[in-house]
Amino acid sequence: MADDCLFCKIAGGEIPAKIVYRDDEVVAFEDINPQAPCHVLIVPYRHIPTLNDAEAGDDALLGRLVLRAARIAAERGHAADGYRTVFNCNRGAGQTVFHIHLHLLAGRNLNWPPG
Fold this sequence. Notes:
HIT family, subunit A; 22% strand; 20% helix; alpha+beta
């Protein structure tokens, strides 16, 4: 964990968040600035700054983030209507917290392209 990382502090329980799931590798919590009625961030405990910093050994962890997003979407009743999962990588793509995280967005019509 990185000492100055917001998501490391949330994962470690130092900063409160509305946790929706937690296991030994990932934590999922409500986004504080939701862009859809359902906006959950799925975050690994291990600090990986960007998707570019993930390594071959991280395949299972990245898959775990995606599968957890699908399960949360299903639990909240969004699987049939649809949902979006997004990794932003670096500032040009909108990444503001440099700890890899997957956005789960659902509950409204999500247009394409996202913009």
